[in-house]
Each structure stands twice: as C-alpha cells, then as structure tokens.
Amino acid sequence: MKSTALKVQPVSGALGAEVTGVDVSEELSQTQRDALHEAFLEHNVLFFREQNMTPEQHLRFTRIFGEPDTYPFMVGLPDTPEVIDIVKTESDTVNFGGSWHSDTAYMPQPALGTVLHAIEVPEYGGDTLFANAAAAYDALTDGMKELLDGVIGVFDSDYGYGGSRRKALSNLELMNDRYDEDSESYLSEHPIVRTHPETGRKALYVSKGHTAHLKNMSHEESRPLITYLSEHIVKPEFTCRFRWQKGSIAVWDNRSTQHYALNDYGGMRRHMRRVTMKGDTPR
Ligand code: OGA
Ligand code: MN
C-alpha cells in the first residue's frame, strides 16, 4: 500500500476513528505525522487496516505519538526489546488484557499509549472494546465531580490476578516463555481523575482490576465507589468495538481510555505485536 490522501473517519459517537490513505511502514512527512498526532488526541483511538510493519517500522510509527518503552512483565524481541509478542495459542484458555483496564496503571508513570498490530487473527472473535474515560467523566454530575476531586487510588499490578500475575497467566504459553522472571509487583498512587497533559481534558482513571482501594480508605469503603466508576466508564454509550483483521493496527491513548480484549475464540490462535509508550506522572 502507498500513502495517498490521509482521511480520518469516526467509528462511533464516543471515540475511535479509522485512518485511511497512509502506509505506516513508510517514513511519513511532518504534515502526515502532525495530522496523525492531532487525530490521536481528538479521537483517543486510531485504527488502520492492511498494514505491514517490521518491528523497526513499528517503533518508528510509534514515535509519532510517544517514546517507545519496555514492558516490565515480558521480554521483548531480541533486537527491539520494546516490541513484544502477545500470543494466545489454540490450547490457551486465558487471554491477555481480558478485563477493562488502562495499560500499566500500576506504574509510577503509566504508559502514555499503545500501538497494537495484528499478525494473526482468529476467523471470528477476539475483538477489542474501547471506552472513553473523559466522556465518562464529563457525564458525571457536578456533585460527583466535586466528591472525586483530590481522591487518590492505590493501583496494584497483582490486584486483579489474585496475588500472582504469573500464576494467573500461566496458561498463556508463549507469554510464559517470555515472562520476565525478575519482575515484581508494582504499587502506585494516582488521582482517580486525571488531567490530560496534552489536551487539558479531565478523565476518570480507575478500574476494578487495577485500583485496589482508595488512599486512606478501607477496601470496604472503597470498593462501592471503584465499582460504580469502573462500570460507569464502560457504559455502551462511551465505547466502540474493533474487529481485527490481519494487518490491522490500533493506537490508543491510555490517559483517556480503557480497553478490553474479548476472549471468545477458544481453540483458535491470535498473535498481536505491541509497543507501549513512556508516560508521565498522572496529575
Ligand atoms: C494490550 C491489550 C488487547 C488485545 O495489548 O495492552 O490489552 O485485544 N491487548 O489484545
Ligand atoms: Mn492492555
């Protein structure tokens, strides 16, 4: 595919846009790069079809949006450690990313965004859902917004995994082979309403799987609010759904969105290649 005129078409009223007229394996012009970066900030998730990228091209494309980073739980490709393979084999039952989350929210500086490239997809199933956490924040009442002002969440990388991420994901054969044996669990504190450093827009930053409890509050006190907000963010009107094909790419902003990888393709193989970007401290 050769780049032609770049076009950006929204896929839902909430978030997400499909970009056509660009071959992301090419070295893009400054004008194209600026247009993509602007579309990323406006739509929160961008989708591309029928793209081929080598790991090196994947890194170059990612730099339009942010600086590639390594992922603490998995070992990347030998020459490009920021590029990781996420494979669910025919015999795996658990999938990676199978609950609503924002990537690496448990790190002191969580990933800015993620560029996911589909290498091999099941015949059907394996879609990814996205939710707009800024739109979800906007929809809250003034009373709730006031209540949430200054509330800090405690984010735990093991929380959704019953205390052991490695054990919970041990069914993922290839992921397990590439698991970083030295990685520990991570615990960080972030405001559960964060302000986007590039757009200034506020977004909810909380999820049932990563937010263990609210700071200076017990689990019993925290969980009802965490549950309410987590479920509010993913109401259908704040979401879109992406059906992957071989060569599809999704680029999402972790500062303003959450995503969910559907696990509805038992017995089939799915292979994705991913790069996350360095983020800043949520404020
Ligand atoms: C991820 C993730 C979703 C998917 O790569 O961070 O959650 O659909 N993946 O594979
Ligand atoms: Mn994810």
Written description of the protein model:
- With 283 residues, the chain is of the alpha+beta class.
- It has one domain: Clavaminate synthase-like (Double-stranded beta-helix).
- It has helices at 30-43, 55-62, 133-138, 142-148, 165-168, 173-177, 219-233, and strands at residues 7-10, 17-20, 45-48, 68-69, 84-88, 113-120, 128-132, 152-156, 187-191, 193-195, 202-204, 211-214, 239-242, 249-253, 257-261, 270-277.
- Strands 1, 2, 3, 4, 5, 6, 14 and 16 form an eight-stranded mixed β-sheet that branches. Strands 13-7-15 form a three-stranded antiparallel β-sheet.
- The radius of gyration is 18 Å and the shape is globular.
- The chain starts with 6 loop residues before the first strand and ends in a 6-residue tail after the last strand.
- 41% of the residues are buried.
- The chain binds N-oxalylglycine (OGA) and manganese (II) ion.
- The site of manganese (II) ion has 4 residues, from loops.
Helix/strand/pairing class, anyone? alpha+beta
| Structural Rg | 18 Å
- Give the overall shape: globular
CATH topology: Double-stranded beta-helix
Poorly predicted regions? none
Oligomer: single chain
Q: What labels describe this entry?
A:
single chain, 283 residues, alpha+beta, Double-stranded beta-helix, eight-stranded mixed sheet, three-stranded antiparallel sheet, 7 helices, 16 strands, binds N-oxalylglycine, binds manganese (II) ion
